[in-house]
Amino acid sequence: MSKTELVSLPNVPRRRRFFRVAWFFVRLVAHIIVWDLLLGRQFWFRWYADRTRIERYRRFSRRFRDLAIDLGGVMIKLGQFASTRVDVLPPEVVEDLIGLQDEVSPVPFGLIQATIEAELGQPISQIFAHFERQPVAAASFGQVHFATLHDKQPIAIKIQRPQIEQFVAIDIAALRWVAGWMQYYGPIRRRTDLPALIEEFSRITLRELDYLSEAEHAERFRRNFAGNEHIYVPQIYREHSTERILVMERIEGIKISEYAALDAAGIDRLDLAEKLYLAYLQQCFTDGFFHADPHPGNLFVRPVGEPLANGKRAFVITFLDFGMVDAIPQYVMDGLATMAAGVVMREPQRIIDGARSIGVVMANANDQQLRQALEIWFSYTYGRTIRELQQIDVEGFVGGLSELLYDLPFQLPQSLLFLGRTVGIIGGVAAGLAPDFDIFSVTKPFALRFIREQTSGRDLRERVVNEGRELITDLSQIPRHAKQFYAKAAQGDLQVRTEIVKLERTTKRIERAFTRLTAGIAASALLISASILQTMHIDNPWMWWLAGGLLLWALLPRFKDN
Q1: Which residue from 297, 320, 101 is spatially nearest to 217, judged by alpha carbons?
Q2: pLDDT at 159
Q3: CB 3.0 to 4.6 Å from 351: which of 29, 179, 342, 465, for a disulfide?
Q4: Which of 297, 292, 386, 378 is nearest to 87 (CA)?
């Protein structure tokens, strides 16, 4: 098949694909709002919502699985992420999604051969001594075949799927449409700018379609981990790579989610979880450049050497697929390191300072409320393993925080979109590998080193200079502020504002309760009146409808937007 024939493939059914993606997420969001936010908060319905929750979401996970297998593209990426969240999603839902990557249909070999020959300009037999027609992996954006170069070097070839650019564009357009509508919901709008996050997701995803960029990313990771004996990145063969074809060193190993195979090979899974976590500490806090797609299909473990005295074997973790990566700005790295230090040292103010510096907490947040919330969080989570965290009293935990967190202005900056996604995936992978993994103890040495670096002579001098500049600026503004203060006082315009958050919230609740009581009384009066008229053979259906409407309005919860 020639390059011209590749271009003449049938057009993607754009409208139908857009509608299927958008309609699925519209139904999911509507289901959450109705069942969990409206009816699920009513005492007379909560028991049924709780009893049916797992089965209801299993139905959605199965529908999503069918949709992702049928459509591929971005849907597979979303399914991969969800399938790693064993620390958040019910096991039944994860079970429905965990094999999603392995069920992606491969592209026929004829199209693969045509793509390679069109990109490299030579017959496939002249480029490779041997090429396996059957793919070893079929991913969302491409598939992998094993081959051998004429110099006997075994390689793996990643070939992009035909028309994948069109599929991705349609999927992202559907997600943009859904995100735009979700912004009308106040609690979401206050917390984050969903359209902006989708744009960031679009930027990273579209960049993943350029295999030459992926080659550059892999080479950068290879340099960053050159001195780490536990991490390996395959070599890239640039002379045979293009924007749609990536040729790399062939790697053998055990998928990191194949627990039985890891145990049989003598791999210490707790040690494996720690080494993987430490690799991400280096990426996030030292290199500022991280692998943003660490699902199990991209992480392989290779046993090394003979078994030790305890029966365990050394190992190497191999990272694959560097299409989805992201860089972390220096100020974000510093803020995250400050937060990590605050977590392991159990210092709420340090966490707040770090969160505020990277924009997670807005400048007008109440530090006292934040410290109270963090102390509650510490009381439930500090020093616990993943297994213990999965067994905490969720109802008590959420109940203790809900009163404090409602008015706190949190937000999710764009720069943390993929970092948050990556942390979620790594958390899920670690939970599956070793439920007894203690994140706090592994992070503590890093946090102590960061604190020492912060208090070193050079850093201390820099902070003194910066704070001195800020002090001079503040002093220079005092005369102007004092003049404005006395001018307003002389004119009688001086106002004193006191923030009493809890009192204001209590007052609003009393007002809402009184309003509901009034509506309930009115509904009862209408029901009684309609019943009396009915006994007198006088039919007034509008009274029944009005009474039912008032009763429903009184029972349904209110969603505040302020």
Answers
A1: 320
A2: 95
A3: 342
A4: 386
pLDDT in tens, 79-119: 766 765 555 567 777 777 776 766 778 889 999 999 999 99
**pLDDT band at residue 313 using 50, 70 and 90 as cut-offs:** very high
Calpha distance 140→98 (Å, rounded): 14
Question: The tokens of 189 are what?
Answer: 């709008």
267 by DSSP, 3-state: which?
A: coil
Instruction: Region of 66 please: left (phi>0), alpha (psi -120 to 50) or beta.
Output: alpha
Calpha distance 53→61 (Å, rounded): 12
Q: Which two tokens stand for residue 187?
A: 């609690």
Which residue stretches of 149-289 are H helix? Answer: 164-182, 186-191, 194-207, 211-224, 259-264, 269-282
Q: What is the 3-state secondary structure (H, E, C) of 381-431?
A: HCCCCHHHHCCCCHHHHHHHHHHHHCCCCECCCHHHHHHHHHHHHHHHHHH
Q: Which residue has the higher pLDDT, 187 or 503?
A: 187
Instruction: Spell out a b/e string for 93-130, using b for 16 or more CB atoms within 10 Å of the CB, else e.
Output: bbebbbebbeebebbeeebbbbbbbbbbeeeeeebbee
What's the confidence (pLDDT) of residue 8? 39
Using pLDDT thresholds of 50, 70 and 90, give the confidence band for residue 498. Answer: very low
DSSP code for 185 = S
Cα separation, 199 vs 115, in Å, equals 29
Could you tell me if 506 and 403 are in contact, meaning their C-beta atoms sit under 8 angstroms apart?
A: no
pLDDT surpasses 80 at 548: no
Kindly tell me the burial class for residue 510, based on how many C-beta atoms sit within 10 Å of its own C-beta (0-12, 13-18, 19 or more). Answer: exposed
Taking a C-beta distance cutoff of 8 angstroms, is the pair 247, 128 a contact?
no
d(CA 434, CA 386): 8
Q: CB-based contacts of 449: which residues, under 8 Å, 6+ apart?
A: none
- Angstrom distance (rounded) from CA 540 to CA 533: 8
Tally of CB atoms within 10 A around 495:
5
DSSP lists the bridge partners of residue 317 as 231, 301
What average pLDDT score do residues 346-355 get? 87
